[in-house]
Every structure is written in C-alpha cells, then in structure tokens.
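Design job #97: recover the sequence.
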C-alpha cells in the first residue's frame, strides 16, 4: 500500500521502533553496550551513552542510515523493549574474525554465529545489508 492508502495506525507503525519478540529474553544493557534497534524497515547498531532513571537508553547511532534521518553520531532515545540484539564491546569473537577476514566477511560470519547460538535476530524478508567497503 502506498502512503495515502494507509490507515493512521499503519502510518504510525511505519515510524515506530520494532519491539523485541516476547520469547526473547531481556538483554543486559549498560553504558558502552552496542544495541541493535530497528525502525522504518532498517536495523542498525547504536552505542549506549547512558541509561536514564526511567530505564530509557540514550544511544549514539553508529552508522549513517538509508530510510531514517539519523547519521552516525546522532543521539537517540529508545526503550529496552526496542533492543533486538546486544554486543558487549569486549566480545572477542568479532575481533578474532576481523583478524583473519575482511570487515564485511567478518561481519556476516559473526552474524551467522550469533544466529546459531540464539543471540541474533533473523533478517526480515528483502533485508538489504549495508556493510563498510574498507577492505
């Protein structure tokens, strides 16, 4: 459906953050944790700057987005229920992959490993992966 044919609820849902599935456990999130969130059909990583007293996460967008107005370095606020995945910056599995593979290959392999161990989220149909080309 195109924009004018959508109901008000459908238009709002297009601009709302995805919510983690009820079967997924609540992640532990601290300052410095990387969190994956999704909005407007786009999922992206942010670095948590701080956790507010009300539990909301103040986070810094970690890359430029295609379907949203935010750019790398912009500050956003999300709720814990919007966190689809987390990454501890001290996780050595990605660092190990980066030591032997290019960035894009390491990122995709790391994603597959996370899916296998249950800590990753499946891509939605027609997902476009935007990876850095710095090899």
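Job complete. Output follows.
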């Amino acid at each position: 459906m195109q924009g004018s044919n959508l109901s008000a609820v459908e238009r709002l849902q297009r601009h709302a953050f995805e919510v983690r599935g009820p079967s997924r456990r609540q992640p532990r999130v601290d300052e410095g944790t990387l969190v994956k969130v999704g909005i407007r059909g786009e999922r992206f990583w942010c670095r948590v700057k701080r956790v507010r007293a009300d539990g909301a996460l103040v986070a810094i967008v970690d890359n430029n987005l295609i379907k949203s107005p935010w750019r790398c370095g912009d500050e956003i606020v999300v709720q814990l229920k919007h966190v689809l995945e987390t990454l501890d910056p001290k996780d050595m599995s990605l660092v190990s992959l980066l030591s032997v593979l290019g960035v894009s290959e390491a990122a995709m392999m790391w994603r597959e490993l996370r899916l296998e161990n249950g800590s990753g989220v499946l891509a939605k149909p027609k997902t476009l992966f935007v990876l850095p080309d710095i090899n």
